[in-house]
Structures are given as C-alpha cells and as structure tokens.
Amino acid sequence: MSRPDLNLLLTLDVLLTEGNVARAARRLHLSPSAMSRALARLRETTGDPLLVRAGRGLVPTPRALELREQVSRLVQEAQDVLRPAELLDPSRLTRGFTLRASDGFVEYFGPALIALVRDEAPGVRLRFMQKPDKDSKPLREGSVDLEIGVVGAASSPEIRTRALFRDRFIGVVRAGHPLAKGRMSAARYATGQHALVSRRGLDKGPIDDALQVLGLTRQIAVIVAGFSDAIALARGSDLIASVPERHTANLRAGMHSFTLPVPVPLVTVSMLWHPRMDADPAHRWLRDCVWRICAPGTATIGV
C-alpha cells in the first residue's frame, strides 16, 4: 500500500478554512490551477468531493465538515513538533492583540488587565473591539485573537473555550426611581417600563418566560443592542434595565440595583479562541493574564 502524501494535510486544512480555491491558492502561494489539481488529488485520496459548487461558491460536504477540526488539529500539532522550543519572556515581547468584548467587560476588567499587561509586557498593545454578535468568523480569520462572552449556538465547534466566571442578572433603575423604595415583587417589577437588550432584536427573553409562569407580562418600551445602552437609558428615565451584575458594576455607579424577583439562570462568561492559537506561547500568556484578572472573583457580587 502506497503512503499518502502528508503535504496534502496542509492543503486540505487551508481549503476547508477558506472554502475557496483561489483564496487557498494565495495563502499557499500556489497558482489556482495547481490548487485545483491538489483538490482533485484530495478527492481521489479521501474518496469524497469535499467541496462542491453552490451558485458561485463552494460548500463543504458532510465528510469535509467531519474532517475540518481533526485536520486543523493535526496540522497545528505537526507545526508545534517542528517549531523550535522556546521559553516566552513577556518583558521582551513586542506584539499587538485584539480582544472582542462587551463595553461592560472593558469598563470593569479593562483597567486591571491593561495594568497587568503593562507591568509584565510593556511592548504589548491591546486593542478592544465591540462585540455585535457571537459569530466565530473573526476568530477563524485571525482578525480577533481572543473573545470574551457567553458561548452560544453560533460559535463554531472547533473554537476553544475556558470559563472565567458566572454572572447573574439584576434590575437597575435611576436613583430616586419609585421602584428604588420598598420590597420588589414580581408584580411591581412587571408593571414598570423596560429596556430589553437583544442583539437580534427579539422582543422577549428568559425573564419574560419566568414572568409568564406567574401569569405576568412586562411592558417592553425599547429594545437595544447592548447593556451599556440599556443602563444609559435607565439612568436618564424611568425605564428598568435588567443586566448582568458583575461586569456592569462600573456602568451602574450611582444607580439603584436590585435582585430580580423571578428566577433567571446564571450565565457563564468565557474566553474563546481559535485552536491554531492554542500552543502559541504569547497567546497562552495573554489567556493567563485574562484568567488572573477575571477568575479570582467567580462568586457573584451581592447587590
């Protein structure tokens, strides 16, 4: 039996990542015709078409989807084997990292993370990007190095994750709001005007499901895309915002916060990264920095 050409693994990894023969050819510095021939060899070797035409583009077959994570891991492990071993000295590191996170995370954790990075690696620059969705494409493409948030169904299966802390939802109103005095019941909470946070523009969420069990419905006056927007609106009006407690602490300064009168599941905030960065010493150092800043306070903060 002839031995398979292991060089085809790298070609397959790039093809499955790009999903496009021309882009894969550019990444591997090959001509489109050479890449087409390589794809033909891969099809012959695997016994599967791997990528098939759909309109003007190509889509992966079920076999290709099955292979994608395994091939990526094999290529990464092979590169790690061939890479010279080295110990990272953060103080000599010169590099930029892009982190995608919510405004609340940057507001609450950003200063401590920046101070830690500046102390250990003064040559490192952090760039924070807003997080409009949970699409893993920026991690896959390398435009984002690390993402902070709740792992959702839209996250790609190959993405690596590590839980940082658990957070609970609380209610928040402006100082002097009528709901700032007295016991907060589910009925009092439901009668107010609410600012709902939904990136997808949905008009209900887990809080509404919990209220429905009690036969109650809250009035949604406005729907916004982020928690900082909801808090800003609540600060300047009689709206009620329901937000995660821990990483909105600074945004809620001077406002009245209260425990929600209905049970709502805790959310787990994690960091996410692409597997190709798994063994990178500098990226591992960055992940450790984020862990050290976030993990010590895993318990939720009391209101």
Task: Write a structural description.
By secondary structure, the chain is of the alpha/beta class. Helices cover 38% and strands 21% of the residues. It is built from ten helices and twelve strands. It has helices at residues 7-18, 21-27, 32-46, 62-82, 103-120, 137-141, 186-191, 206-213, 227-235, 281-294; strands spanning 51-54, 57-60, 95-100, 124-129, 146-149, 160-167, 169-173, 193-197, 219-224, 240-244, 256-259, 267-273. The strands form three sheets. A five-stranded mixed beta sheet has the order 4-3-5-12-6, covered by helices on one side. The protein has a five-stranded mixed beta sheet with strand order 9-8-10-7-11. Strand 1 and strand 2 form a beta hairpin. The longest helix is centred in the N-terminal third of the chain and has 21 residues, at 62-82. The protein is elongated. The model is unreliable at 298-303 (pLDDT under 50).
Structural class: alpha/beta
Q: Let me know the number of strands.
A: 12
How far apart, in Å, are the first and last alpha carbons? 69 Å
Question: How confident is the prediction overall: mean pLDDT?
Answer: 88
Strand residue content: 15-25%
Order of secondary-structure elements: HHHEEHEHEHEEEHEHEHEEEH
Approximately how much helix is present in the residues? 25-40%
Main sheet: strand order: 4-3-5-12-6
**What Rg, in angstroms, do the CA atoms define?**
24 Å
Give the helix tally.
10
Report the sheet with the most strands, covering strand number, pairing sense and barrel closure: 5 strands, mixed
